[in-house]
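User: Fold both of these, please.

Assistant: Here is the first one.
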Amino acid sequence: MNALADAPPAQAGAPSARIEELKKTVSASRLNCWQTCRLKFYFRYVLRIKRPKSAALFIGSMVHLVLQQWNLARWRNIPFKLDSMRGTFDTKWTEEQKEQPIDWEGEEPAEKQSSWGLLDMYFKQTPIPADEKPEAVEVPVEADLHRHGLPVLVGVMDLVRKGGKVVDFKTTGQTPNPERTSHLNETQLSCYGVLYREATAARESGFELHSLVKLKAPKLVVTALDPMTKQQETRLFRIMDSYLNGLDRADWIPSPSPMSCACCEYFNECRRWG
């Protein structure tokens, strides 16, 4: 059945109540989707068309879940045990597929072993000392930006290290280029900067992107970045303003590109869009 059978045509506008809801708050993930393709944003956040999680997204979520447990253990002063982390990984791998099985195309054992290899590599190469207690782990934060004519910014930070350094974990199949990585993640990190300053009334000391690179021999690439600048904050606010204006106009315009379209879960809906 056509996934859009019960939905209004994109060009005819979207349910007004849902759009009003989206205008009240904004997050880094929504802004990134908005910047990537507004029609994809429409399918995902306005029509709420659900798609099964891909193998790559599942692996990324598994890595994040285990790293979250590792960070929480350090926060609670629980000694690190690799066997315990492996047990957590095995349990989560099974539990997370009960409601939504992944189509592994016969590659699940190899993908599972490869995914654990990423984590095993990270635990051996991480620059974070085993006895360093985090300031925060997976803490939901919000910043009311109405004084700037903007909605409430919401988000969850993976990790805040001692001294106010915000860390975000990435899984990737290619070795990241520092300059490109900084550019591609600027919106997300600027959101974290605003959220951290709102929550603590202090300036973050900087950012770290910990990229777990899924290669035959997995490796860790740490990209260290300076605190958010005033220019970056202004650019973020302009993006939010564009987001609000686009929602008002029902600006659901596709942005075709070889990279994003190749892995887009809404490719068929996009092709049928009028």
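And the second sequence with its predicted structure:
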Amino acid sequence: MKHRSVLLLVSGMALLTASACSAISVPSILNSAPSPAEVVIPNAPPTIGSLQDYQSTLEQIYQRVNPAVVSIQVGNGAGSGFVWDTLGHIVTNNHVVAGSDSIQVTFSDGTVRSAELVGADADSDLAVIKVDLPAARLHPIALASSTEVKVGQLAIAIGNPFALENTMTVGIVSAVGRALPVESSGSGQVGYTIPDIIQTDASINPGNSGGVLVDDQGQLIGVTAAIASPVRASAGVGFAIPSDIVRRVVPALIETGRYEHTWLGISGASLTSDLAQAMNLDADQQGALIVAIVPGGPADQAGLRGSSQELTIDGRPLRVGGDVITAIDGQAIAKFEDLVAFLARNTEVGQQVTLSILRAGKTQTTTLELAARPNS
């Protein structure tokens, strides 16, 4: 009932705002407003710039970025993409083009070209398609490092929501370091997760998939890919695949058509205080609990152990007792997502890594060689 009251209050506020807008004209508000010199706000932060400066910045970003963004039509569906290079490579989401027999690309100037699939990776939800256009007519986007993205910074999405081409929306970075589940190919079941996901309140809707999320310099910080919403439309919670993952995956898709993710051969969970106490560990102990180990995988070959006991905590059956990974190559692991993110950011297939683990409350280290993740 409390949650329902909040929803009704928000709805009422929205109606009140609409009513006020219809009753008072914008010019009268502007004319009656005090001048900036008359406004005194205690403890207010310094102003960044005028409204005109802000609008001008957004206009310039749109003019710079929009030529790099394309609309993609696949059968009865539509999505977005962006120009990667002057060879005609275009990046989009894998789920936009997966299983498509025909791909049509529309550029911001109205040019339409057929495209062919170059490579795709379901586990990062990225794909590369290619069109035949002269280099002079292709405008690649510039990339920023997503590791530098901070909560609160400007976030601008450009794409093709509801097949409305060249649409720009503005918000902020709401959170970083999210994990986005991806489905195993065609099974409808969750396979792996994409780490370091950027969350934004910039409006993202169906059709934005594969489009861009850029910073205040017009540089790519993420590829818009998903939303959390009860109504299949923007609810202010959108997710973008970070540019640093795009930077690693796309060149491999162009060169070989596929990308090899590194793999430990485990499934697991973050160690919570309840799980830690159930394993006779300090309640504040952090780490990635190994729940299960894939037979023959790197972790299995290195002698790591999965969980062998099952307990019921808060009405949920949970497996406990496995090794707890607390560091990889000296980098502390506080939760399972930290382990996934480290592998995605820093490792290659065939690379050796050193794991620090807790086994029966005692710390030890082990070295193993990372393999390529099996196809999901």
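The first helix runs from residue 2 to 23.
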